[in-house]
Amino acid sequence: MPISQAFFQRSNALLLAIGIAVLVIIVATSLWLTTASERYFGEVTAARAVRSATADLLSLVQDAETGQRGYLLTRDESYLAPYSAAASRVPDQRLRLEHAAARLPEVTPILQRVNSELEQKMGELAATVEATRRGDIETALNLVRSGTGKRLMDELRTDLSAILAVSEKELREAIDAQVTASTRLRWTTIIGAILILAMAGAASWTIISYTRELVAARREVETLNVGLEERVRERTDALVKANEEVQRFAYIVTHDLRAPLVNIMGFTSELEAMFKPIEAYVGAGAAATPEQKAAAEEALRVDVAEAIGFIRSSTRKMDGLINAILKISREGRRELRAESVDLTALIETAAAAVHHQASAEEGGGIEIDAQVPRITSDRLSLDQVMGNLLDNAIKYRATARPIRIAVRTRRERRGWVKIEIEDNGRGIAATDHERIFELFRRSGTQNTAGEGIGLAHVRTMVRNLGGDIAVRSELGKGTTFTVTLPPDLTAYRRSAEA
Amino acid sequence: MTNGKPVSIIMIEDDEGHARLIEKNIRRAGVSNEIIPFTNGTDALNYLFGTDGSGAVSAGRQLLILLDLNLPDMGGVAILEKVKANAHTKRSPVVVLTTTDDSREIQRCYDLGANVYITKPVDYDGFANAIRQLGLFFSVIQVPETP
C-alpha cells in the first residue's frame, strides 16, 4: 500500500497523540493508586494503633486489679505500686484509644460503654483500696464479694475484645485493599507499557514504510533521468542521421542531375561540329567533291542520330530523376494517419502478393513468424515498406537455389516493434551496406531493371514513422533487413514535437 | 603509348553518353589506342581479374584505367582498392575521372594509389578541353606491362 505524505503525517500525529494519552492515563492511575495505597497504609497503621491501645488498656486495668488484690491480701502499701501506676496511666491510655479509634465509627458506642465500665471499675477499685487504707477490711472484702468488680471486668474484657475484633477486621480489609491497589498498579503499568510499545511499533512501521517508499520513488526518478538522457541521445542520433541524409541527398541529386546535363551540353556542342561537313557540302553545291558528300552523309546519318539519341535519353533520364525526387519529397510531406494496424494481417497480405513468385520453384516459400499482433502506425507506409522489401528479396534472389523468405516480428524494449525480413538471396557486399539506401544507387550485378529508388524510399518512410532500417548481409548467402518502429506513432510524434 | 605492345584503355563509366564524349575527345587528341568501355563495376572487375578473381588474366596486359567513382552497382573506390591491391594490376595507371569534387574523396583516392584525379567540368567546353589534355597526357606517358 503506498503511503501518501498526508497519510504519513496524519497517522504519525495520531499515534503520537494516542501515545501521550496512554502515558497520561498511566501516570494519573499510578498517582491515584499510590495515593490509595498511602491511604490504606494509614488505615493499617490506625488499626494497629487501636489494637495496641486496646490491649494496653486491658493490661493496665488488669495490672490495677492485680495490685488491688495484692494490697487487699497483704495490706502492704508496696503491693499497691502496680495499682497506683496503672490507675495514673489509665486516663491517658483511654484518650489514646479514643484518639486512635476516632476513625472507626462502629467502635464509638462500644467505646462509650468501655468508658463508663472503666469509670465504674476504677471507682470500685479505688473504693476497696480506700476502705482498706481506712482499716475497714470488711467493707472492702464485701465490695469484692459483691461481684460487681468481676462483672465489670468481664464486661470490659468483652467490650475491648469487640474493639480488637473490629480493629482486626479493619486491618485485614486495609491490607486486602492495599494488595488490590498494588495489583492494579502493576497491571496498569504492564498494559500501559504494552500500549506504548504498540504505538512505538506502529510509528516505526509507518516511518520505515514511508522511508522505503521515498527511497523507491527516488530510485524511479533516477531511472527516469537515465531514460531521459538515453532519449535525448537517441533523438540527437536521429537528427545527426537526418542531417547526413539531407547532405547525401543534396549531393546525389546535384551529381546525378549534372551527369545527364553534361551529356546534353556535350552532344549539343558535338551536334554543332557535325553540321560543319554538312554546311561545307551544301555550300559547295554542285561543285561538291565525293569526299565532302561522304562526310556530310556520315555526319547526318550516324553522328547526328547518335547525338540526338543521347540528348533524348539524357533528358528522359533527367525527367525520371526529377520524378523520383518529387515522389520521395511528396512521401516525406504526406500526412501520416496513425491507426491501429493488424501487423500480422498486413504482412500476410504483402506476402500473399509475391507468394506465387516465391513458391514457383520447388522448396521456395515465405515463412511468417509473427509475435506482435498490432501496431499503431500509418498503414499505407507500412504496406509500401513491406511490399518493397519483399519485392527486393524476390528480385535479388540467388539463381542457384529456390528463394526462401522468413518474416519475423518481435517486441523490443520499451515496446518497440522489430520486423525482420530474411532471405537466402544473392546478398550485398559489406561496402555497399550504406550505399543501397542511397537514392539512385544499386548493388551487385545489374541483371534486373531498377532505378535505385526502392530502398531510399523505404528508409524515408520508416524514418517518417519514427523508426529506422538496418541491413545485415553476406555476399552470396542472403540478406536480412531489420525495421524497428515505435509501438505508437502518435506517442512518438508527441515526444518528437516536445 | 607506343612502346611494344599496344596499351588498352579500360574505361569504366556508367553513363554511355559520357563514355562516348570521352572517347570522341581522346581520339581528337590523336590517341588511337583500343578503348574498352564498361558501364558497370561488375563487368569491369570480371575483365580485370577474371571470373576466378585472381587477376591472372591481366598478366602481360598493358592497361590504363579510366575510372568513374559513381557506378550503379558498386563504388568506384572499391574498384580502385582492388586494382591497387592486386599484384597483376597494381602498376597500371588509374585515372579517376568523376564529378565528385569532395576533398576527402580526392585524398582517399590518392591514398589508395590513384595516379591522377580529375573532376569532370560541368560545362562542355571545359569537359572537352580536360579530356583532350588527358588524351595528350596519355600519348606521352609510359605504361608498364603488368606482371
Offer a few descriptive terms.
heterodimer; A: 498 residues; alpha+beta; Four Helix Bundle (Hemerythrin (Met), subunit A); Heat Shock Protein 90; 3 domains; 5-stranded mixed sheet; two-stranded antiparallel ribbon; 10 helices; B: 147 residues; alpha/beta; Rossmann fold; 5 helices; globular
**Terminal CA distance of chain B:** 18 Å
**Proportion of helical residues of chain A:** over 70%
Number of strands of chain A: 7
What is the third-level CATH name, the topology of the largest domain in chain A? Four Helix Bundle (Hemerythrin (Met), subunit A)
Number of DSSP strand runs of chain B: 5
Termini of chain A, distance in Å? 34 Å
Q: Structural class per helix/strand content of chain A?
A: alpha+beta
**Overall CATH class of the largest domain in chain A:** Mainly Alpha
Largest interface: A-B, 31 and 25 residues
Computed Rg of chain A: 64 Å
Low-confidence stretches of chain A: none
What's the CATH class of chain B, please? Alpha Beta
- State the helicity of chain B in percent bands: 25-40%
What does this 3D model show about the protein?
The complex is a heterodimer of chains A (498) and B (147). Chain A is of the alpha+beta class and 498 residues long. Chain A folds into 3 domains: 5-213, Four Helix Bundle (Hemerythrin (Met), subunit A) (Up-down Bundle), CATH 1.20.120.1730; 249-332; 335-497, 2-Layer Sandwich (Heat Shock Protein 90), CATH 3.30.565.10. Chain A has 10 helices and 7 strands. Chain A has helices at residues 5-74, 81-101, 108-134, 137-145, 148-284, 290-333, 343-358, 379-395, 454-464, 489-497, and strands spanning 338-342, 365-370, 374-378, 404-411, 417-423, 468-474, 478-485. In chain A, the strands form 2 sheets. Chain A has a 5-stranded mixed beta sheet with strand order 2-4-5-7-6, with helices on one face. In chain A, strands 1-3 form a two-stranded antiparallel sheet. In chain A, a hairpin with a 3-residue loop joins strand 6 (468-474) and strand 7 (478-485). Chain A is rod-shaped and about 220 Å long. Chain B is of the alpha/beta class. Chain B has a single domain, classed as Rossmann fold, CATH 3.40.50.2300. Chain B is built from 5 helices and 5 strands, in the order E-H-E-H-E-H-E-H-E-H. Chain B has helices at residues 16-28, 41-49, 76-85, 103-111, 124-140, and strands spanning 8-12, 35-38, 63-67, 94-98, 116-119. In chain B, strand 3 (63-67), helix 3 (76-85) and strand 4 form a beta-alpha-beta unit. The two termini of chain B are 18 Å apart. The interface between A and B is medium-sized, with 31 and 25 residues.
